[in-house]
Amino acid sequence: MSTSTNTIETLANREYKYGFVTEIEADVVPRGLNEETVRLVSAKKNEPEFMLEWRLKAYRHWVKMEKSEGEPKWANIKHPPIDYQDIIYYSAPKPKKKLNSLDEVDPEVLRTFEKLGIPLDEQKKLSGVAVDAVFDSVSVATTFKEKLAELGIIFCSFSEAVNNHPELVEKYLGSVVPYSDNFFATLNSAVFSDGSFCYIPKGVRCPMELSTYFRINAADTGQFERTLIIAEEGSYVSYLEGCTAPMRDENQLHAAVVELIAHDNATIKYSTIQNWYPGDKDGKGGIYNFVTKRGKCLGRSSKISWTQVETGSAITWKYPSCILQGDNSVGEFYSVALTNHHQQADTGTKMIHMGKNTRSTIVAKGISAGYGQNTYRGLVKILKSSTGARNYTQCDSLLIGDKCGAHTFPYIEVKNSTARMEHEASTSKIGDDQIFYCNQRGISKEDAVNLIVNGFCKEVFRNLPMEFAVEAQKLLSISLEGSIG
Amino acid sequence: MLEINNLHVKVGNQKILKGVNLKVNAGEVHSIMGPNGSGKSTLAQVLAGREGYEVTAGEVIYEGKNLLEMPPEERACAGVFLAFQYPVEIPGVNNAYFLKAGLNAIRKYQGLEELDAMDFLPLVKEKMKALEIDELLLNRSVNEGFSGGEKKRNEVFQMSVLEPKLAILDETDSGLDIDALRIVANGVNALRSPDRAIIVVTHYQRLLNYIIPDYIHVLVDGRIVKSGGKELALELENKGYAWVEAEIHTAAPANA
């Protein structure tokens, strides 16, 4: 009798359109993880001694963690045990000579990014967006590098930064997410292969969006990338990351770490559109997206704003957080997480208030369809030192169909009585009457659901850079296909 | 335009419509009146294609096509409009955006070019003015936080933009004060035309002071028991529905 439930069940079954595989020769390290793997990865990247030492410290810590508690168990997710010895920790497209221009990038790789809508060659570059393209374990190209360098902005792959700006890397690496932080961050610290590095000098407003596009291609490979963004006093940068992977029946691990540092009066805006392969409609395959993202508002009146649209991955486990250390600093978290079919997400944020008059805003929107399980988990912590702190939290869940779940776990710890906290939460369902009302105005069931879902996410989309807000809307409607019958 | 033959409808185990016959031609305004629970709203919902109503017998022909076989959005695209008795709230969805999506879906179905915001806004603003609707309403979420009167006016506003061929108004007068009633009625009257038909479902006679129907039908216990011209409304107002009920009971013994 309920049309929308049937409707909704059939709406979510469009093919994942980024599921192709690029045939390419790759340089891989042997399967499995030991100290030798770590040394090999470091050697392949010609890293200075301090990096290898750091990696080894992390590796040794990880071995201890694995023996004692293993993976974190508190998250509301389920998956079969991961065999860490059955993963390939490094895979790079050959030839592996140093790239000086795009002409030397394997045309297959360029074609891959072209197919994904990320043209890298000179003529077709996306205007107004500088892109760092990461393919499996390495960065293959970075656009607009020279133009940005004129302003003193460093935007390059992490490997290049390690070699060309070791003093910056050594100073900031692990300063927000220490190598011992958590199981997956520690693993990343030991074996991370590449990622993006941005440095915005004092007083510079970065004139274009910086973005990194992550692509997993090789089978049985884990992707462990690391991003480090440093915004000096009074600077501004808006950064965006996107990601896709081929469709495979096996689960693949993606364990990334992102560290942001904002000095006095600096602003970092970090947006994610996460579209890893989510697995098929029966829950087979898909990426395990176990990511640690954290920003430190180190300086006075600094600001870090996270916006994420999470539609992909079999499992998402991530909590982009802000440490509000500087007085008057501001942290923001805007999130849309969608789980359809058998996808699981346990995501949210942590806002740690240390400085005086620090403010944070959390707007989290969870959408569950099919058999999807969606959990919001968030911590707002006001330390004793943080006088006059404010937080506003809003968690909304939208259910489509009757086989999915929405869960909310807000944690609030207040040690200073001057704090002001607000928390609002709601759970709603797309009602048959809403769908019928849309139908009666000529709007199809599928469009009606998209309309309602997009309306639900509007507050978050508003925070995305314009070009990507449109993409996010499209992505959401694709991810919902088959959720309506 | 519309022909309803011997329509029987059940909700769950309860028979609501028990053989409704009605013929509506283009250019006509029909009013369906009746006491509470007589099946008026059910008839409106069934015509619009709402789920949960089981048609056990009879047929509905709309412009030569079997209406009951068409999904609700196709009926809407083919020109059937229902002004809801209880308009639905859709949080987060902008009223103007919603209406534009509907209008363009209908235009697409009819092979017309879709309107962009530049063409859409002037059209909408003109209609709003006629219905004395605050333009701010456009930027609010569909029906969310609207007063009862605003909701009803919004329905008539949508109708005036979508320009249906067959408009069904389900108790649009309920919850309206006298000024709003007049404005809504003006909106409906502006839509009267030789190629359009309107069905006004109402409990009270007062709306019919403003929208003067060509025909009035009285629905009692799932059947149309009396039909007549506009003067029937006044007779009902004076004598009440009990009068019609008494009349049918003496004419034919109850068989239900």
UniProtKB/TrEMBL annotation, chain A:
Domain called SUF system FeS cluster assembly SufBD N-terminal: residue spans: 136-206
SUF system FeS cluster assembly SufBD core domain mapped to chain residues: 214-456
InterPro entries (alphabetical): Fe-S_cluster_assembly_SufBD, SUF_FeS_clus_asmbl_SufB, SUF_FeS_clus_asmbl_SufBD_core, SUF_FeS_clus_asmbl_SufBD_sf, SufBD_N
Name of encoding gene: sufB
Pfam family, any one: SufBD_N
NCBIfam families: PRK11814.1, sufB
Source organism phylogeny: Bacteria, Pseudomonadati, Nitrospinota/Tectimicrobiota group, Candidatus Tectimicrobiota
Identification of the protein by name: Fe-S cluster assembly protein SufB
Single Gene Ontology BP annotation: iron-sulfur cluster assembly
Family: Belongs to the iron-sulfur cluster assembly SufBD family.
From TrEMBL, chain B:
Record's keyword terms, sorted: ATP-binding, Nucleotide-binding
Domain of life where this protein originates: Bacteria
Pfam (any one): ABC_tran
Record SMART domains: AAA
Molecular function terms, GO-annotated: ATP binding; ATP hydrolysis activity
Membrane-spanning parts: none
Gene3D superfamilies, sorted: P-loop containing nucleotide triphosphate hydrolases (3.40.50.300)
Family: Belongs to the ABC transporter superfamily. Ycf16 family.
PANTHER family named among the record's database cross-references: ABC TRANSPORTER I FAMILY MEMBER 6, CHLOROPLASTIC
Protein name: Fe-S cluster assembly ATPase SufC
Lineage start: Bacteria, Pseudomonadati, Nitrospinota/Tectimicrobiota group, Candidatus Tectimicrobiota
Name of encoding gene: sufC
